[in-house]
Write a structure and sequence with these properties.
heterodimer, A: alpha/beta, Rossmann fold, six-stranded parallel β-sheet, about 40% helix, B: ten-stranded mixed β-sheet, globular, disordered N terminus, SDR (chain A), KR_dom (chain A), NAD(P)-bd_dom_sf (chain A), 3-oxoacyl-ACP reductase (chain A)
Chain lengths: ~450, ~475
């Protein structure tokens, strides 16, 4: 699971060689460590909207060195551009060119973040198509808004040194200083978003709490993670626990060995349960509510692959993937939503996949199930909002895990380079994105699918 | 033992019945007064959860696992299931029948390797195949007496990792060598060793006093009671089918934790039928005059495995959001004189059960579930036949009428040792945990309390019977 190429091009001769030959030069990403959440250097805030002012004020509160002019600073850690008030394509150039002048000062592990408003057209996760309730936009305004998408995604591709570029889309009618706008900015600045690149997160309403304990964003919450015995699920469990939650790991009885070790380490009960059990939702509620009185957070992580070209697909392979990856999520979520055991702000995160976004050769069943997750999440959003909660999905790209370790070596090397960060992500990267979406800081983000893929070329 | 005691016997029994009667049905009074916890005498011992590793035929995936490895895994799985990692329990009692001498503190060492607070005391128990039952009894009694609030009872056995001892001659020579001071004495010690002494001593299931293996003993009982081959094979097939059905419906999802890649008991043959079992050759009783009927299919194989059961007070459970499954009501042990041939080696439960039932004013037919450990299919059948026999019940048990028969639909409903295998000391914990869960489920479904009887026979002519009631 170690990326030997990444190690090689970051040391001595390998570094020189890669540079001379023009080979990809991925760097170790700036990941979250307690007490070191922000990029090194000043934060440059460009643009003059209310969103810029709100973000700048929040960042001052986080003790960041906030500047409003590129010429003011030598070392830039992050650049934040407010396009929320852009009226036409002409409004894009000024801040873009100012960003240009700041790029050479941008340090490794830095951030570019845009704040803008959504428009129908290019899909950005689940925010594609016409937003319900959105006012009719003037064509020039829509052009400016979608222009930001093209600009940001290109910037992300041009960055090196582990710098990422992501955008916050503030829905019309949502205040520029809504809690989740601040929350999303904080997430994109943080090492928690290290492998999120070229993505947009839509803030759809004013809910949420920007005053969470950022070191422990899910403190005091009671959470359940399915498929928790190994891989991404295990990491999600550990990260949520480290972020303050009480996490009950769930996995199939056959994985009970690893599951019980994890549970004992975290001093929580383990639940051996097949998520396709029709009673799965009730069994989860019985244990968790019986033990802790309520259930706040759920991560639908359990998933399987049964890859075959469609020409060779059989019923068992198709059905089992659909049953585990999407039908179980639908059934459990339905049970949870009709229960009176949920906490006051229930949050669900579902595991989708970039295969669900872009499709993948040999994965018709898997891609169908994962695209299904994205659709189900968007449709469940209003249902859970009625209960004060949120549901979102995370779509991992190439993640270094037991699953991807099985890919033949040459294909694996190519797969992990096919993104702007030129490397695979880690289970921690996925876990951090999930943790953010489960925190009250993301209370205004609902029905979205966030890709954790290093801006994979696939399905962009 | 005197006339005196005998004369007083009825009175004593009556008195005992009285006290037990109050002790066993305290719930309404206690619940009403709310003095449950503060009155140790009325404290119930309840089974909260159980766990075992899948049982494996000897020489299988656990071939290199020690008793300590397996017992630790069983305890850790139980700790995880109940979310009590880091907690200090009042006691952990467990044991193994086949044990290395270095494992003198097997249970304590397992606790030290587990996720429990290391300040949890532990002790070993050894009562042959009834070891697990005796640990449940012991822990429950401590709870009822108010000595502890929560404990784990369990057991483990490995037939794969069995201790192999040196021969008696070699052992004496080696001890002499250890005491030798001069070179001459050392040489002298070596000189005593004979070539035959180099053969190691492997443990066997033979009875020390008769030299007969357990199977040969049971063959005598089988013949005595006229248990047919077909009846034995039917029981064996039912055991496999019931176990497979229980796995199929997820019954073991919260009773078993995988170990060393094994996720289900590997002795289980879901497609087992009377016809298939009928093709096996007899292995025991071949030297007896009648037909030999005991085969590898209707006898338990040598097995590796471990089990653990969490037993607590109601209060301890409720403080942790745990739901009691069943109350451990009472236990009765019995032993028989098999050495003279007066009674069969594994017939002691036939004596323990009626005494236990009488103490609680119950009949066999009052029971909702009956678990009779399947050491051999014929053990179960012989015991049940004895209870149906007016002669046995009169002559041996001193009863006016036979105990009667057991509805077979209540017997070993989720399979028993013929299918799961029988890692001696682990069997009691397996049965208690599964039965407690089944009782709780049935009580919920039927809306009335359910009672179960468990009976386990053991080497040395012993047996333990236990009553569980849905909590």
């Amino acid at each position: 699971m170690t990326d030997t190429y990444l190690d090689m091009v970051n040391s001595g001769l390998g570094k020189q060689l890669a540079s001379k030959l023009g080979l990809p030069r991925p760097v170790a990403l700036r990941r979250y460590r307690s007490g070191r959440d922000f990029p090194e250097g000043a934060v440059l805030v460009l643009g003059r909207g209310r969103a810029a002012d709100a973000a700048a004020s929040a960042m001052l509160g986080w003790d960041l060195d906030v500047r409003r002019h590129a010429s003011d600073v030598d070392r830039v850690g992050a650049v934040l551009i407010d396009y929320t008030e852009a009226q036409g394509p002409a409004d894009l150039g000024g801040p873009a060119l100012e960003l240009s002048s700041a790029l050479r000062k941008l340090r490794a592990g830095g951030r570019v973040i845009t704040l803008s408003r959504p428009a129908p057209g290019i899909g950005t996760g689940a925010a594609s198509g016409t937003l319900p309730g959105a006012e009719q936009l003037a064509p020039a305004q829509a052009a400016a808004r979608q222009g930001v998408v093209g600009l940001l995604r290109s910037v992300a591709q041009e960055m090196r040194g582990g710098v990422t570029a992501n955008g916050v889309l503030v829905a019309d009618g949502v205040a520029a200083d809504a809690p989740s706008v601040i929350g999303a900015v904080r997430f994109f600045l943080s090492g928690r978003s290290a492998y999120v690149d070229g993505q947009f997160l839509t803030v759809g309403d004013d809910r949420g709490d920007a005053g969470v304990d950022w070191e422990h964003p899910v403190a005091g919450k009671v959470a359940v993670v399915t498929g928790a015995a190994r891989g991404i699920g295990e990491q999600v469990t550990r990260t949520l626990a480290a972020s303050g939650a009480t996490v009950i790991p769930v996995d199939v009885p056959a994985a009970g060995d690893a599951l019980s070790k994890l549970a004992n380490e975290l001093r929580v009960p383990a639940l051996q349960l097949d998520v396709t059990d029709p009673q799965a939702g009730q069994k989860i509620l019985d244990l968790v509510a019986g033990r802790y009185g309520r259930l706040d957070l759920v991560v639908h992580n359990a998933g399987i692959t049964r890859d075959k070209m469609l020409a060779n697909m059989d019923e068992a392979k198709w059905n089992s993937v659909i049953a585990v990856n999407i039908e179980s999520q639908l059934r459990i979520t339905e049970t949870l939503l009709s229960s009176d055991k949920l906490g006051p702000a229930p949050r669900i995160v579902c595991l989708a996949s970039t295969s669900g976004v872009a499709g993948n050769r040999g994965q018709t069943n898997y891609a169908a199930s994962k695209a299904g997750v994205i659709g189900a999440v968007a449709a469940t959003a209003p249902l859970i909002a009625a209960k004060g909660g949120t549901i979102n999905a995370v779509a991992p790209g190439f993640i270094e895990s037991e699953m991807t370790a099985k890919i033949p070596a040459a294909r694996r090397q190519i797969s992990r380079r096919l993104n702007s960060l030129q490397q695979g992500g880690t289970p921690v990267d996925v876990a951090q994105a999930i943790t953010f979406l489960l925190s009250d800081a993301a209370g205004g983000v609902n029905g979205q699918t966030l890709r954790v893929c290093g801006q994979s070329m696939v399905g962009a | 033992m005197s006339e005196n005691t005998q004369r007083n016997a009825p009175k004593t029994t009556e008195k005992t019945t009285d006290t037990r009667g109050t002790g066993s049905k305290p719930a309404p009074v206690m619940a009403a007064t709310g003095k449950h916890a503060s009155t140790p005498a009325g404290t119930r011992a309840v089974v909260v959860a159980g766990n075992r590793i899948p049982f494996s035929r000897a020489g299988g995936p656990y071939a290199n696992a020690s008793n300590q490895d397996m017992l630790t895994a069983a305890i850790d799985g139980l700790v995880a299931r109940t979310g009590i990692a880091g907690e200090r329990l009042g006691a952990v009692a467990a044991g193994a029948v086949i044990k290395h001498s270095r494992d003198f503190n097997l249970t304590r060492e397992s606790v030290l390797g587990s996720a429990l607070d290391h300040a949890t005391p532990a002790y070993d128990v050894q009562m042959a195949c009834a070891t697990g039952m005796e640990t449940v009894s012991s822990i429950s009694n401590k709870i009822r007496l108010g000595q502890i609030e929560a404990g784990i009872a369990g057991g483990v056995d490995s037939s794969s990792d069995a201790p192999i001892a040196v021969s008696e001659g070699l052992r004496r020579a080696l001890l002499k060598l250890q005491r030798a001071k001069t070179t001459m004495q050392k040489i002298q010690a070596f000189k005593d060793i004979r070539p035959a002494d180099l053969t190691p001593a492997v443990p066997s299931s033979g009875e020390p006093r008769t030299g007969l293996s357990m199977g040969e003993h049971q063959a005598l009982t089988t013949q005595h009671w006229g248990i047919t081959r077909e009846a034995q094979d039917e029981l064996a097939a039912a055991s496999h089918q019931h176990l497979a059905a229980a796995y199929e419906r997820g019954f073991f999802d919260d009773l078993v934790t995988p170990f060393k890649g094994l996720t289900k008991d590997n002795n289980m043959r879901p497609d087992s039928t009377v016809e298939k079992l009928g093709n096996l050759n007899p292995v025991f009783g071949k030297k007896l005059s009648g037909e030999a009927t005991m085969t590898a299919g209707n006898s338990t194989p040598l097995t590796d495995g471990a089990s653990a059961v969490l037993i607590t007070t109601d209060e301890w459970a409720s403080q942790r959001g745990l739901t009691p499954l069943a109350e451990v009501v009472d236990t009765e042990s019995a032993a028989v004189d098999f050495v003279t041939g007066k009674e069969g080696l594994l017939m002691a439960p036939a004596y323990a059960v009626p005494r236990l039932l009488a103490r609680h004013g119950l009949t066999l037919q009052d029971l909702d579930l009956v678990e009779i450990h399947e050491a051999f299919a014929s053990t179960v059948l012989a015991i049940m036949k004895a209870w149906e026999s007016p002669e046995f019940c009169k002559d041996r048990l001193g009863l006016d009428a036979p105990l009667g028969s057991i509805d077979r639909s209540k017997l070993n409903v989720n399979g028993s040792s013929l299918a799961t295998g029988h890692p001696f000391a682990a069997t009691g914990g397996r049965i208690v945990a599964s039965t407690a869960k089944e009782l709780a489920a049935r009580a919920k479904a039927e809306g009335r309390p359910q009672t179960a009887l468990i009976s386990v026979c053991a080497a040395g002519g012993q047996g333990v019977a236990m009553l569980l009631r849905s909590a």
